[in-house]
Specification:
Low-confidence stretches: none
Strand content: 15-25%
Number of strands: 8
Bound molecules: erythose-4-phosphate
Structural class: alpha/beta
Largest sheet: 8 strands, parallel, barrel
Shape: globular
Radius of gyration: 20 Å
Distance between the termini: 44 Å
Length: about 220
Amino acid sequence: MKLFVDTGDIEEVRQVSDWGILDGVTTNPSLIAKSGKGFRETVLKMCELLPDGAISAEVVATDYDTMLKEALEIHSWHPQIVVKVPLIEPGVSLVKTLSDRGIRTNVTLVFSVSQALLAAKAGATFISNFVGRVDDISDDGMVAVEATVRMVETYGFDSEVLVASVRHPLHVVQAIQAGAHISTMPFKILQMLFKHPLTDSGLERFLSDWNKAGLHIFEG
Ligand code: E4P
């Protein structure tokens, strides 16, 4: 499964890319606004920090003609950029247009398998299925992810299912169990994936035994 970081913060991308396990970055208008930096400069810096990564950058218009102009502009900035498009009627038409031109897309704000079907049929590269926002309203966001993975596999669509709006490591575990292709999550959740109390206590014991015995790797 690919791991993406969901952020508008360049420093977070720098830190996670140093781990060597990052496959991409997702941004959205709220995250870019929070960063306090320009959209183009932020996205271009992310491409530089993660040279093989998929960097999603979102259009903000809601009518087809303006969305198309924005999409072509964003796409022209860098070949690594994936144009992020909301799941609305002109958005689905736009994804079809972009996919016919070989431009990669990430369809966002997807909450149901029937919405995901529209994105897949339009040729979406990624289908961003939000889970946390559904859990927030007392439903189970993972149900749509499981159904979408099954739908993509059953009908042989090329789209990859991207689990978004991840709130905690259990969502990542559930995304793996559902067979999702990608999970995107905030930096702090990626850091939490490292954590296990038995890793900490086990390492402490190994190092204490080693040091007590006065051993060295480099001799002389
Ligand atoms: C996905 O691409 C979105 O940017 C993101 O996962 C939204 O997460 P949130 O529901 O925590 O805002």
